[in-house]
Design a protein that fits this description.
The complex is a heterodimer of chains A (about 110) and B (about 120). Chain A has about 110 residues and is mostly beta strands. In chain A, about 0% of the residues lie in helices and about 55% in strands. In chain A, strands 2, 4, 5, 9, 10 and 11 form a six-stranded mixed beta sheet that branches. A five-stranded antiparallel beta sheet of chain A has the order 1-3-8-7-6, with no helix packed on it. The radius of gyration of chain A is 13 Å and the shape is globular. By secondary structure, chain B is an all-beta fold. Helices cover about 0% and strands about 55% of the residues of chain B. Chain B contains no helices and eleven strands. In chain B, the strands form two sheets. In chain B, strands 2, 4, 5, 6, 9, 10 and 11 form a seven-stranded mixed beta sheet that branches. In chain B, strand 7 and strand 8 form a beta hairpin. Chain B is globular. The chains are: A mainly beta (about 110), B mainly beta (about 120). Chains A and B meet through strand 5, strand 9 and strand 10 of A and strand 5 and strand 10 of B.
Chain lengths: ~110, ~120
């Protein structure tokens, strides 16, 4: 079992819709959770992080964490074509090791 | 700050040759990470350093790979001898654990080195 699992997609949503990206992790002691966005040919860049159960909102982005279910998600409201990218979920495990999922490819259709 | 700096940006070499990738972390960051990214395996952590000391190298695929961090502002990843299956994009990232509740703060990635081994 991989430490961090993501649906590879591709996920396609129309412009203006909500895009929902999901991630599960195996280490129940994991402490911090990150979402990175990676455009084709570029390096990953952090867009959200969350440490506590519940929701965290930043502009059009909302991160949701459920430690009991070992589940973290990213919602993108009012999706724009510029949101088309691969989204990587990353988890800092209890052993202080950093694990990335393989990423979900998102395409926002104008 | 210029961000994480990596060189070279592209490297094409022949099988059996030695390859050295270089990284300069963000000034003041005390953790440095080397990753390899391929379509098949995604982003894989190879090794990370904290305060210039290697903490976890379990991701280093084999003895052909070695990494050093002689000081806080420089690290190298060396592959000797290189093989075609080493072709990938290699990213260096840095972060600061100082004052971070989780022990790791966000990682800032360099632009990557695209390695092609023929």
């Amino acid at each position: 079992q991989k430490e961090v699992e993501q649906n590879s997609g591709p996920l396609s949503v129309p412009e203006g819709a909500i895009a929902s990206l999901n991630c599960t992790y195996s280490d129940r002691g994991s402490q911090s959770f990150f979402w990175y966005r990676q455009y084709s040919g570029k390096s990953p860049e952090l867009i959200m992080f969350i440490y506590s159960n519940g929701d965290k909102e930043d502009g059009r982005f909302t991160a949701q964490l459920n430690k009991a279910s070992q589940y973290v998600s990213l919602l993108i409201r009012d999706s724009q074509p510029s949101d088309s990218a691969t989204y990587l979920c990353a988890v800092n495990s209890a052993g202080n090791q950093f694990y990335f999922g393989t990423g979900t490819s998102l395409t926002v259709i104008p | 700050d210029a961000g994480v700096i990596q060189s070279p940006r592209h490297e094409v070499t022949e099988m059996g040759q030695e390859v050295t990738l270089r990284c300069k972390p963000i000034s003041g960051h005390n953790s440095l990470f080397w990753y390899r990214q391929t379509m098949m395996r995604g982003l894989e952590l190879l090794i990370y350093f904290n305060n210039n000391v290697p903490i976890d190298d379990s991701g280093m695929p084999e003895d052909r790979f070695s990494a050093k961090m002689p000081n806080a502002s420089f690290s190298t990843l060396k592959i000797q001898p290189s093989e075609p299956r080493d072709s990938a994009v290699y990213f260096c990232a840095s972060s600061s654990t100082r004052g971070s509740r989780s022990g790791h703060d966000e990682q800032f990635f360099g632009p990557g080195t695209r390695l092609t081994v023929l």
